[in-house]
């Protein structure tokens, strides 16, 4: 659904999903500059950071910024609602900086007191799927009105917006008026990752919206990579696979336009 205007500083996407994979399996939860908030329906969501890590299974899940893909296990289908929260959204809804969740997979009852958004899993289960997105949006708006916390410091918000837009760390420091080291400390304290890493995640985010829609070399240029090889190296690091592998596994009906 289109995110209501009052939520846009806090929520960048709000999607009610109903996916039939055809068979049990695992798909990737990609790194991004947003904090992921998932409310599964029908069965708990089981997620891990890969082999050797203990999966987390919960009826609600928040995931801090991460730089490697999560492994999301499914029994052949999944339904629910997924949101991406900004740093301001995490502060406003959960009264803490996103850095507190960096690299974590947590259930709602671990991060928020009873009431408000904590009861969303039960309320979703009792609601017509056609009303899920509206229910979540209305609940978030109510939570903001009751518990809204101050946004990140203005200079931090400005720095994150510039980094998301592709600005270099020194450029951000110059525009905000702080030293590079001071900006690095503030961004890391707010998000849990260094400014350079945040900028790379933002570029990776942009590329996800382009691969499969245009030749990879063109996507690389549009996103600010040096070339297609640079884009592929970043995908190997953040996604654990090449973009063509991701397309083949997640969207088997899509082909890289360069192959046409």
UniProtKB/TrEMBL annotation:
State the source organism's domain of life: Bacteria
- This one is known as AraC-like DNA-binding protein
Question: Does the keyword Membrane belong to this entry?
Answer: no
| Pfam families from the UniProt entry | HTH_18 (PF12833)
Q: Which keywords fit this entry according to its UniProt record?
A: DNA-binding, Transcription, Transcription regulation
InterPro entries linked: AraC_XylS_family_regulators, HTH_AraC
GO molecular function (one): sequence-specific DNA binding
Q: Which PANTHER family match?
A: BLL1074 PROTEIN, HTH-TYPE TRANSCRIPTIONAL ACTIVATOR RHAS-RELATED
Instruction: Domain (HTH araC/xylS-type): give its ranges.
Output: 169-249
